[in-house]
Amino acid sequence: MLRFVLLILFAANLGYAAWGQGWLTAVGWGPGQTSEPWRLEKQMRPEAVQLLNGTASPTPVADAAPIAASATDATEPAPLETETPAPATAATEIATQCLEAGPFTQEETKTLRSALRAQELPWDSYELRTQEVAGRWMVYLGKFPSPELLARQRASLRAQGIDTDRAGGNLEPGLSLGRFSSEEAATRELTRLLRSGVRGARVVQERATTQVFTLRLPAVTAAQQAKLAALAPALGGKALEACAE
User: In this protein, which residues make up the domain named SPOR (predicted)?
Assistant: First the structure.
């Protein structure tokens, strides 16, 4: 059986070799023709083919000129571009100073606001800080009818070891026997003095609780300082000084 299969394979290979070599062309068996004559027979419109020599140019001279020019331009090196150095953009830091003045009462602050607007300072270049000032009470002795009587009373109190001070303001001529931040503290001191033999003293309110204002300029430049000099009349004798904090 194996021999029979081998014989069949051998015969098949032999037949394929004869077909491929064209040995069976005489009997009508063989591969298709691929030789040059066969290719020439298969050409379509061979008369349309034009054979050009090496010197002829199919492109008109007028059309070829731009091409030559562009080729020349392409080979020429491009001119070097000189870079202009960019101007420095880093801003120079401007030196500033923080200044403040005060305190000012409400009436003084109104005058100061008008002066600030007249100088046309930027609204965000200054601020008026509000601060509440607590009231103040005094143990007071007076008013005395004459400076001589006031001097005798001061000497008498010193002899008893009691310190005195000028009352000031519309309480003159008079003596202050102590100033306190609350009425209760002033009343306690008055009680102690009465027990010590002091007569005629009483508690008065020297200053009511009020609001005061401080002018603060956090970043004053050298150019702004010239404008601030014109604020002197509105500052009421209070000088602009370096900020405390």
Answer: 131-206
Domain that holds residue 170: 136-208
CB 190 within 8 A of CB 203: yes
The amino acid at residue 115 is A
Say if residue 83 is exposed, middle or buried (CB neighbours under 10 Å; 0-12, 13-18, 19+).
Answer: exposed
Let me know whether 182 and 227 are in one domain: no
Shared domain check, 144 and 126: no
Q: What is the pLDDT along the chain (245 residues), one digit of tens a residue?
A: 788 888 888 888 887 777 677 666 666 666 665 555 656 666 667 677 676 665 555 555 445 444 444 444 545 555 555 555 555 544 456 788 899 999 999 999 999 999 888 888 788 889 999 988 889 999 999 999 999 999 999 999 999 999 999 999 899 999 999 999 999 999 999 999 999 889 999 999 998 888 999 999 999 888 788 778 888 899 988 989 999 87
pTM surpassing 0.90?
A: no
Are 101 and 204 in the same domain?
no
**Residue bearing tokens 């009462």:** 105
- Total tally of structural domains belonging to the chain: 2
